[in-house]
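Re: your question about D-alanyl-D-alanine carboxypeptidase

S., sorry for the slow reply, the queue was backed up all week. Below is exactly what I fed in.
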Amino acid sequence: MCPKERWAAGAPALIVFVWLGASCLSSVTTAALFVGEGTKWKSWSSSSGVYPSNTWDKVTAVLEEAKKNATFPGCVAAVGNESGLIYTQPLGSFTYGDPDPVSHTNPPMTPDTMFDLASLTKVLATTTASMILYQRGHLDLDMKVSDPELLGPDFARNGKEAITVRNLLLHNAGFPPDPKPNYWDVAFGCPQTAQYYPKEDFSCQAMIYAALLNQSLQYSPGTKYIYSDLSMITMMHVVGTLARDHGYVEPSDLNVECVHHQPNSSHSLPYLTQCYYEAFVRRRVAEYLGLQQLLFLPPRSPTWALTAPTWNDTVYRHQVMQVCRPYAHLILERMQHMYL
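Result:
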């Protein structure tokens, strides 16, 4: 998730979401539910009758008070049940006043505003994809990640030979919370990190994958829970490897933005498994469920202009951005996080 201290002037809007009959979910899981244009109020009949029009007035009042107190610059609230949406309420605008990075204005929130899913990507994309592969018999939770069918013996460097898929999913693989130096740090050496306004490109894919293979551990696998992006970055490559090797994704399915920087357009390079991961999630999760606006790499036009900023980055990108994590910006450009 994005550090709160970065939610300063020009910072993110957010979604408030309640799903009746299920657990309350935080921010952006809503998206798939009010995908499409012109989502409208939908009345809801229950055993006690139809809810009156003022049912959600208190909810709206709480949100309006939060906006007034600058808790957030804007939001889209949604409440739904198994029949669909029963309440939607956009409030406020994209930022606290700073221009957004696309329109250079401060657009109002609408039901069609898209949001960065941030670390919910781990649940909605990576975990879901892993479950599909597990269900189909391609993934054993106790397989070692260094198994030739997964990332192979190169992953076993620096004490990682015992790490299993289960360790990655439980965040007890032994990884530190973040790599040091971070992939976006000038000291790491990605070409774009030396630029004050780094470009969004895939020029550092090979370097970051090599660093992942060489990553050392902070603890022995299975001994301590540490929430680490490195676990899910690794799992992304596991999913992509299996999707490629079992024919769920063909080279023709790959997003051209993900592969067009690569030499000779080779689709067999090991670090390009991230591109197979994106295609697997797109085709086998989002498209299968009809969630057209749950996606990586949203098209710059018109979708990018509809996407609320999430971070006022004063350290690396030096501008208001729609993606909060520099990993997302570097590893997969706009792929590491999903949008809705």
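The beta strands are 14-19, 45-46, 49-50, 74-81, 84-92, 311-313, 319-321. The first strand starts at residue 14 and ends at 19.

Happy to talk it through on Thursday.
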